[in-house]
Amino acid sequence: MAALFDYSAQLLEGAALTxxxxxxxxxxxLLLGLAGAxxxxxxxxxxxxxxxxxxxxxxxxxxxxxxxxxxxxxSNLINTHFAGTLTLSPFAGGVVAxxxxxxxxxxxxxxxxxxxxxxxxxxxxxxxxxxxxQIFWCVQLPQAWRICLPSLNNMWxxxxxxxxxxxxxxxxxxxxxxxxAAQFTKQPFVFYAAVAVIYLLLLAVSNPAFAYFExxxxxxxxxxx
Amino acid sequence: MDQLALLLSQSWPVLLDGxxxxxxxxxxxxxxGFALAVPLAxxxxxxxxxxxxxxxxxxxxxRGTPLLVQIFILYYGLAQFEWVRDSALWLLxxxxxxxxxxxxxxxxxxxxAEDIRGGILGxxxxxxxxxxxxxxxxxxxxxxxxxxxxxxxxxxxxxxxxVLQLKSTALASTITVLDLxxxxxxxxxxxxxxxxxxxxxxxxxxxxxxLSLLTRYGEARLNRHQLR
Lengths: 225, 228
Hints:
The complex is a heterodimer of chains A (225) and B (228).
Chain A: H1 2-6, H2 8-40, H3 45-60, H4 63-81, H5 90-116, H6 119-127, H7 132-162, H8 174-185, H9 188-217
Chain B: H1 2-44, H2 49-63, H3 67-77, H4 82-86, H5 89-93, H6 96-122, H7 125-133, H8 138-168, H9 180-191, H10 195-222
Helix pairs in contact in B: 1-2, 1-6, 1-8, 1-9, 1-10, 2-6, 3-6, 6-8, 7-8, 8-10, 9-10
């Protein structure tokens, strides 16, 4: 247990990197998800079909394999085209892979949520003379947001857990710090258990956060009973 | 595409071996995980706290931490203790394949138990009352009425869990199990390309598609008494 104290600063540093990776991937993943949902609802059939195809492919491959493909594939690409001048960090590779996976799931959730916004809302907004951008930003997005929050909570928790995979390609996240500490102290159980507890805590914190978001997003609606 | 075909023609025996290991992990962990999930879900739904609490703790522990961390705890972590290495448990966690299987099973059991718990909550009260009125004991009501109905109700999510589990088996490669991902990683390191990884990805998609068809068929069969 004393060893755990010696390495606590290292572990916390790793936890900070884990969170940084998760939030960066979340931002890009949400953007990708929105773009994917837009493509899936596009009037162009080739765009619709290819968006469905891509998201189905991404959802059928193990996250770990996607990470390996992104990291090593992009590294190879960069090596052949910009030999020596650029390298891909594990962090960037992790963000690309995690954002792609998150975006693939998010596009389906967003599509469902946008379709669930009542049509009358759109017609009303249009007859008020709002521009398309205004309709999207002030009418559709807040209502779709409310509908997809519970699924987003699930997806965020999966994303946070998936960040642990990036330690395999060498990101100095919490799990890799625990690996290093375990090798030095010969107490692997202590460190891996500590990592598990930190993940439990991080996930436990996100539930109340989402409850708050949901309450805020639902403030225009009468609560049942 | 030509490169992938060439790779497939050259190294299909190893890829097939890897695929077989992945399927074994999937099948065994699904059967064992399901067998474990039913009692867990029943215990979790018990009104008595001392029965519900252990299964609740188990479920939140396994659902709240990454599978990779669970695998590392079982495979590397437990080896820290001498009493584990001297006990029968070592047969399970001392070797990579049984250890990966154990982690996948426990993880899936936690997720499936949560799904079945939802199903148990969804069993109509009238059916339980009718069974009690027929003179069934509480154990009989649970075993003959609640559990089968709960499994039927949660069948779609359980099927989904099986398809997701295929993706989880890829993590076995992190502790040296040569499953499909493990084989692909080795091939890709040997050839300095990502072709093998892409090929493995394709294989995963095909299996996932077959699995989702199978689970949809199973679901329809499980709820066939309701189809009109």
